[in-house]
Amino acid sequence: xxxxxxxxxxxxxxxxxxxxxxxxAYDYPTARLLDEAGVDLILVGDSLGMVVLGFPDTTQxxxxxxxxxxxxxxxxxxxxxxxxxxxxxxxxxIPQSIWSAKQLVDAGAEAVKLEGGIRQAEKIKAIxxxxxPVIGHLGMLPQRVLEEGGYxxxxxxxxxxxxxxxxxxxxxxxxxxxxxxxxxxxEVALTLTQTLPVPTIGIGCGKGNCDGEIAVISDxxxxxxxxxxxxxxxRAQVATETSRAVSEYLAEVQRDFQGKx
Length: 261
Ligand code: KIV
Fold this sequence. Notes:
There is one protein chain. The protein is α/β, with parallel strands linked by helices. The chain is 46% helix and 15% strand. It has one domain: Alpha-Beta Barrel (TIM Barrel). The chain contains eleven helices and eight strands. The chain has an eight-stranded parallel barrel, surrounded by seven helices. Helix 2 (28-37) packs across helix 4 (63-76), helix 5 (94-107) packs across helix 6 and helix 6 runs parallel beside helix 8 (158-174). The chain is globular and about 75 Å long.
């Protein structure tokens, strides 16, 4: 068993044991700070499309973007399980999924995450057969934002609940090491957490309804002030502090220039 598989096994063992902490990172200093703080999982999420690359959503993120940022994160992290998101258009078929997952691993990922349930099960099985651990992602799927016409809560109707349950079951049978639940109604997320044998890691599912919690780092530290999801808790104001420091610097340059013109 390689070290990535060992870390994925340890993740499975955390279920019903203690809370699992997960954060996104996209660069070396952030990854190093998170790892030194003891976070369990670092996700190089395709949210980098918005919070780092300035795209409106995740649908323009490419495998090359992901590889570039994964390599930086891998240089900064020693202990956390590094998960790389397979970006949209990188996992249409089984062979393409395996090839893309291997590209992310070569760049520094120890596990990959991809969005969707039943329709992804065979691809997930094939990636796991290549000894690459996989994390599933159910609920609101950001890569489908254009088809769905926005970011919508999931689990509101009986049909949606059954769809989530069937998707989760398919992911478990495929062999995932955990499942991210995004924007799933709290009571539905709790039922999934209580019934699934693998850890659920929630975002936008309310507090305490999943085995762990994942957050986008810029939401936690307040470094992307132009959009903050309603469920996010900002614990620092990095954008405000950056603006203050830059204004101070600009003023000092002008002060020091006085009389030299
Ligand atoms: O890309 C990302 O940051 C994610 C999290 C929101 C789970 O997938």
